[in-house]
């Protein structure tokens, strides 16, 4: 067997395709994935495959061409934009004498670099172990040796390979239990947000569409954002104020074409932020020539995770890259209102806030309330919500002119001392 390079930074890319001209969008995305993983793309090799070779995926002629290209460019890593079976991966490594990584392995490597939270790291490790479980045999012939038969080495007769599989399964079981505990905690936090009666909005979209930049612009947070695929993986949740009231906004992991099923399963808790939202902000790179295809691919993943029926507000971001484009909101009378903006420059952010509040049906309550002198806590809460527009005091108590979101008013009215606020709500219902 060959000695695997530990560097793996110079990569030969193999792009399999059926008959006809290769899809340039697929090719460019694959190259972006390689660069996002930290590889330098030395050469790109197209491989037409009419009938996949069960042993090596590509034919013998193309395999020899790949070997020559690796030697000529100094590539120490081969990336294949296709899901390989363990046998194909092992045979390619033997023939090319280089480490071979398929599309799923490449995305998993990027995820392992980008995960920051404890939950994200657990999810990535779980997905990697499940992917690795079928590939323990490749490259390590010593794993086939039997324990036992020699003095001092006799044992249960278990092969090293079987031992590694058993230990790997124990690790998988442990990770799944830890993730279940994290999921319980996340569910409790989500229930607390539901009890607060704040509408929930989730940012979704193709990776590198600008979701994290938009999240930062809307919330004033400092979530990591960069011009690369899968810049952020871990969900971030913040409350934001809109015309009409507050909402809870969640940033989620970006989608990509042919997202490996191992990742969809591993990131179920992250994706549940989208699945349980009241509205999805579908962020699209307006300057992307393949934006219609990207929208269809995101919708497919949303259907796969059970979020296909949730209403969407389309956000065409990065209009700063389109000459002559200006911020606007297109209302078509259906569920897909479209806002055109630039999250980087802040152009159109106000229009998006208004459109978001309108889509969520946020309404406000205003009027005069009389608070008795012992209602200091309720008065303090109204001031904390910045709902007090005017205030006076007499023998009966405090007279406040208030203006606040209907959701906030309903929450205050439901509390024990909320009777003065409840007096405002029938007026709204009677309109």
Automatic annotation (TrEMBL):
<comment type="subunit">
    <text>Monomer. Associates with the 50S ribosomal subunit.</text>
</comment>
<dbReference type="InterPro" id="IPR025121">
    <property type="entry name" value="GTPase_HflX_N"/>
</dbReference>
<dbReference type="GO" id="GO:0043022">
    <property type="term" value="F:ribosome binding"/>
</dbReference>
<dbReference type="GO" id="GO:0005737">
    <property type="term" value="C:cytoplasm"/>
</dbReference>
<feature type="binding site">
    <location>
        <begin position="317"/>
        <end position="320"/>
    </location>
    <ligand>
        <name>GTP</name>
    </ligand>
</feature>
<protein>
    <recommendedName>
        <fullName>GTPase HflX</fullName>
    </recommendedName>
</protein>
<dbReference type="Pfam" id="PF01926">
    <property type="entry name" value="MMR_HSR1"/>
</dbReference>
<dbReference type="GO" id="GO:0003924">
    <property type="term" value="F:GTPase activity"/>
</dbReference>
<dbReference type="Pfam" id="PF13167">
    <property type="entry name" value="GTP-bdg_N"/>
</dbReference>
<feature type="binding site">
    <location>
        <begin position="342"/>
        <end position="344"/>
    </location>
    <ligand>
        <name>GTP</name>
    </ligand>
</feature>
<feature type="coiled-coil region">
    <location>
        <begin position="158"/>
        <end position="192"/>
    </location>
</feature>
<dbReference type="GO" id="GO:0046872">
    <property type="term" value="F:metal ion binding"/>
</dbReference>
<dbReference type="InterPro" id="IPR006073">
    <property type="entry name" value="GTP-bd"/>
</dbReference>
<comment type="function">
    <text>GTPase that associates with the 50S ribosomal subunit and may have a role during protein synthesis or ribosome biogenesis.</text>
</comment>
<feature type="binding site">
    <location>
        <position position="232"/>
    </location>
    <ligand>
        <name>Mg(2+)</name>
    </ligand>
</feature>
<comment type="similarity">
    <text>Belongs to the TRAFAC class OBG-HflX-like GTPase superfamily. HflX GTPase family.</text>
</comment>
<keyword id="KW-0547">Nucleotide-binding</keyword>
<dbReference type="GO" id="GO:0005525">
    <property type="term" value="F:GTP binding"/>
</dbReference>
<dbReference type="Pfam" id="PF16360">
    <property type="entry name" value="GTP-bdg_M"/>
</dbReference>
<feature type="binding site">
    <location>
        <position position="212"/>
    </location>
    <ligand>
        <name>Mg(2+)</name>
    </ligand>
</feature>
<dbReference type="InterPro" id="IPR042108">
    <property type="entry name" value="GTPase_HflX_N_sf"/>
</dbReference>
<keyword id="KW-0460">Magnesium</keyword>
<keyword id="KW-0479">Metal-binding</keyword>
<feature type="binding site">
    <location>
        <begin position="205"/>
        <end position="212"/>
    </location>
    <ligand>
        <name>GTP</name>
    </ligand>
</feature>
<dbReference type="InterPro" id="IPR016496">
    <property type="entry name" value="GTPase_HflX"/>
</dbReference>
<keyword id="KW-0175">Coiled coil</keyword>
<keyword id="KW-0342">GTP-binding</keyword>
<dbReference type="InterPro" id="IPR032305">
    <property type="entry name" value="GTP-bd_M"/>
</dbReference>
<dbReference type="InterPro" id="IPR027417">
    <property type="entry name" value="P-loop_NTPase"/>
</dbReference>
<feature type="domain" description="Hflx-type G">
    <location>
        <begin position="199"/>
        <end position="364"/>
    </location>
</feature>
<keyword id="KW-0963">Cytoplasm</keyword>
<feature type="binding site">
    <location>
        <begin position="251"/>
        <end position="254"/>
    </location>
    <ligand>
        <name>GTP</name>
    </ligand>
</feature>
<feature type="binding site">
    <location>
        <begin position="230"/>
        <end position="234"/>
    </location>
    <ligand>
        <name>GTP</name>
    </ligand>
</feature>
<dbReference type="InterPro" id="IPR030394">
    <property type="entry name" value="G_HFLX_dom"/>
</dbReference>
């Amino acid at each position: 067997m060959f000695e695997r390079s530990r560097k793996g930074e110079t990569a030969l890319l193999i792009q399999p395709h059926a008959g006809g001209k290769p899809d340039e969008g697929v090719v460019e995305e694959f190259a972006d994935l390689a660069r996002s993983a930290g590889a330098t793309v030395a050469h790109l090799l197209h491989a037409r495959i009419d009938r996949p070779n069960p042993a090596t995926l590509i034919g013998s002629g193309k395999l020899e061409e790949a070997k020559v290209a690796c030697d000529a460019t100094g590539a120490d890593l081969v990336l294949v934009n296709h899901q390989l079976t363990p046998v194909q991966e092992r045979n390619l490594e033997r023939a090319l004498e280089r480490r071979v990584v398929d599309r799923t392995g490449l995305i998993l490597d990027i995820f392992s670099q980008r995960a920051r939270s404890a939950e994200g790291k657990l999810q990535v490790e779980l997905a990697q172990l499940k992917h690795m479980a079928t590939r323990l045999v490749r490259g390590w012939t010593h794993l086939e040796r039997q324990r036992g038969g020699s003095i001092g080495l006799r044992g249960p007769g278990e092969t090293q390979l079987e031992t590694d599989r058993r230990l790997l399964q124990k690790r998988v079981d442990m990770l799944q239990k830890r993730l279940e505990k994290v999921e319980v905690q996340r569910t409790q936090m989500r229930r607390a947000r539901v009890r607060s009666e704040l509408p929930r909005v989730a940012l979704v979209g193709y990776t590198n569409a600008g979701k994290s930049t938009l999240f930062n612009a809307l919330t004033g947070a400092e979530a990591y954002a960069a011009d690369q695929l899968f810049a952020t993986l871990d969900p971030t949740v913040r409350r934001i104020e809109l015309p009409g009231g507050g909402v809870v906004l969640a940033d989620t992991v970006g989608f990509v074409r042919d997202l490996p099923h191992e990742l969809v399963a591993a990131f179920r808790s992250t994706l549940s932020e989208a699945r349980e939202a009241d509205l999805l902000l579908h962020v699209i790179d307006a300057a992307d020539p393949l934006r219609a295809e990207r929208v269809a691919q995101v919708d497919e993943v949303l259907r796969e995770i059970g979020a296909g029926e949730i209403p969407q507000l389309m956000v065409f971001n990065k209009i700063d890259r389109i000459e002559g484009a200006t911020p606007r909101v297109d209302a078509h009378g259906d569920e897909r209102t479209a806002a055109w903006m630039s999250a980087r420059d802040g152009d159109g952010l106000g229009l998006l806030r208004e459109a978001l509040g309108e889509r969520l049906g946020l309404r406000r309550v205003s009027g005069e309330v009389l608070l008795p002198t012992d209602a200091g806590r309720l008065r303090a809460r109204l001031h904390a919500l910045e709902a007090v527009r005017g205030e006076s005091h007499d023998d009966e108590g405090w007279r406040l002119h208030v203006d606040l979101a209907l959701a906030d008013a309903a929450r205050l009215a439901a509390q024990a001392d909320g009777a003065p606020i409840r007096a405002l709500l029938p007026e709204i219902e009677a309109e």
